[in-house]
Specification:
- With 205 residues, the protein is of the alpha+beta class.
- Helix content is 40%, strand content 11%.
- It contains seven helices and five strands, in the order H-H-E-E-H-H-E-E-H-E-H-H.
- The protein has a three-stranded antiparallel β-sheet with strand order 2-1-4. The protein has a two-stranded parallel sheet with strand order 3-5.
- A hairpin with a 5-residue loop joins strand 1 and strand 2.
- The protein is globular, with a radius of gyration of 19 Å.
- The N and C termini lie far apart (60 Å).
């Protein structure tokens, strides 16, 4: 576990150095063309062992209450550059490259009450890239919170198996996803047994 953390932090530091020119240009563009407001926005998230931390990302929206994208912010969002400051979270040991999405701190209590198995996702560090995003581009717009947590738990289960066996983490992404049972939901479920099954249809009279 300690070796993996050192490896992750080292990779994050290398990426941070390599991408520092792009980070500097993005910072300058926000400072010059996005109006008043912070360049980097930090919000509260829960990480490994449910320890809170401040997730960092570039500001892409206006700060006057309209919540609309700025012109620069829209470009940053389309180019997927808003998450570049997350590399600082990796270097600080708060996040990893791969892992469950970091959840807002204020939602943890309610979600844990609704789903008793929810706390399992805190067994690994949250990541920039999550298993659901690797599996389907529709993950971000999935309406089912249960499906989202299933992807996270699937990753946690495989990560723990790799930790016990000593296999490298990339082997997780070589594993074929669990086949889906029809009818397929809007967002495919990697752990079908967690999806509530509908009640049987009443017998005809």
């Amino acid at each position: 576990m300690a070796l993996q953390a050192i490896y992750t932090n080292l990779i994050g530091l290398i990426l941070l150095i390599l991408l520092s020119p792009l980070i500097a240009v993005t910072t300058l563009a926000i400072a010059l063309f996005s109006g008043p407001g912070p360049i980097i926005v930090m919000d509260g998230r829960s990480g490994f062992q449910n320890i809170p931390f401040r997730r960092m990302h570039f500001r892409t929206r206006r700060t006057d209450g309209a919540r609309a994208y700025t012109r620069v912010g829209l470009l940053i969002s389309r180019l997927h550059l808003a998450g570049l400051p997350l590399l600082f979270n990796i270097v600080r040991g708060e996040m990893a490259l791969f892992g469950p999405r970091p959840v807002r701190t204020e939602f943890v209590g309610r979600l844990t009450e609704m789903m008793p198995f929810y706390s399992m996702r805190f067994g690994v560090k949250p990541g920039i890239i999550n298993w659901g995003a690797v599996q389907t581009s529709r993950y971000q717009v999935c309406a089912s919170a249960l499906t989202a947590i299933e992807y996270d738990l699937y990753y946690v289960r495989k990560a723990r198996a790799c930790r016990v066996s000593g296999a490298p983490m990339p082997v997780i992404f070589a594993v074929k996803p669990i086949p889906h049972t029809p009818p397929a939901p809007k967002c495919p479920s990697p752990i079908p047994h967690l999806v509530p099954t509908p009640p049987p249809a009443p017998a005809p009279p």
